[in-house]
Amino acid sequence: MEIGIIDLCKQIEDPSMNRKKVHKMETSIYIFIAAVICEVQSWNEIEEFGNSKIAFFKSRIPGLEFIPSHDTFNRFFSMI
Questions:
Q1: Burial, 31: exposed, middle or buried (Cβ in 10 Å; 0-12, 13-18, 19+)?
Q2: Is residue 63 assigned to a domain?
Q3: Count of domains in the chain?
Q4: Cα–Cα distance for residue pair 50/37, rounded to 1 Å
Q5: Among 27, 20, 19, which residue's Cα sits nearest to residue 46?
Q6: What pTM, to 2 d.p., does this model score?
Q7: Which positions fall inside the H repeat-associated protein N-terminal domain (predicted)?
């Protein structure tokens, strides 16, 4: 059985409050992993990377409308 990165990310407990969720946890993790592989080094650069590859991410993440902000990445990864 083959399992993808997004499926693995879904197994992690999401610490975010339900009423404040705009992006699924696995979306943030998937974009983060791709950015780190491409040697991105800051939250701002992760957001910029995501925006520069938005068509790629939209083709792989169902329902993605926009990339999380650098503040969202920072908050999320500070919680886990």
A1: buried
A2: yes
A3: 1
A4: 13
A5: 27
A6: 0.75
A7: 10-80
Residues 22-74: tens digit of each pLDDT: 777 788 889 999 999 999 999 999 999 999 999 999 999 889 999 999 998 89
12 has pLDDT over 70? no
Q: Give a yes or no: residue 73 inside a domain.
A: yes
Q: Give the dihedral sign, CA 75/25/9/70.
A: negative
> Alpha helix (H) ranges present in the chain?
5-9, 25-37, 43-52, 54-60, 70-79
Q: DSSP class of residue 66?
A: S
The owner of tokens 């491409």 is 38
What string of DSSP letters covers 41-61? -SHHHHHHHHHHTHHHHHHHS
Q: Which domain holds residue 77?
A: 42-80
> Could you tell me if residue 25 is inside a domain?
no
